[in-house]
Amino acid sequence: MKQERWTPHVTVAAVVERDGRFLVVEEETADGLRINQPAGHLEAGETLVEAVMRETLEETAHAFAPEALVGAYMTYIGKPGGGATYLRFTFCGASGAEQPARALDEGIVRALWLTADELRACHATHRTPLVLRSLEDYLAGRRFPLDFVHTHSVGPASAQ
């Protein structure tokens, strides 16, 4: 009998600062309303940079131009034997103007701009501890150039 291969969930997130405030989303989860950075899952065929641009636009109606990688984070959520491991790549960058006519992703209640102190004060409502951790890393000046993350394209002839 073939055993199922374990794989982590790969996600991306954006730290977007404008005038001392950070773009976050309030989203409906199984645990109620939670605060998160614009974030989501990497989809087949995407690069990490493409994924964070797409997710930020879908969740906030703001275009996002990544400028640097803040960090790579791993977390485990759930009960032992029944949880999931998430590998999260958090980018920082600039947002474009809001596209108010654009509908937000299902489950996203609203996008809002909060200060670092406001985000610290509501840490109990964060989707995961990575929200505050990546914010603090950003504020501490952690930045890696975008070319730190490499994407190797595999053509059809070399795919296994």
UniProtKB/TrEMBL annotation:
Alphabetically sorted, this entry's keywords are: Hydrolase, Magnesium
- Keyword Methyltransferase (UniProt): no
Tell me the Pfam families matching this sequence.
NUDIX (PF00293)
The Nudix hydrolase domain is annotated at 7-137
Instruction: Please provide, alphabetically and separated by semicolons, the GO molecular function terms listed in this UniProt record.
Output: nucleoside diphosphate phosphatase activity; ribonucleoside triphosphate phosphatase activity; thiamine diphosphate phosphatase activity
The EC number on file is: 3.6.1.-
According to its UniProt record, which cofactors does this protein need? Mg(2+)
Q: How does it assemble?
A: Monomer.
| Family membership | Belongs to the Nudix hydrolase family. NudJ subfamily.
What is the official name of this protein in its record? Phosphatase NudJ
- Name the species this protein comes from: Trinickia symbiotica
| GN (gene name) | nudJ
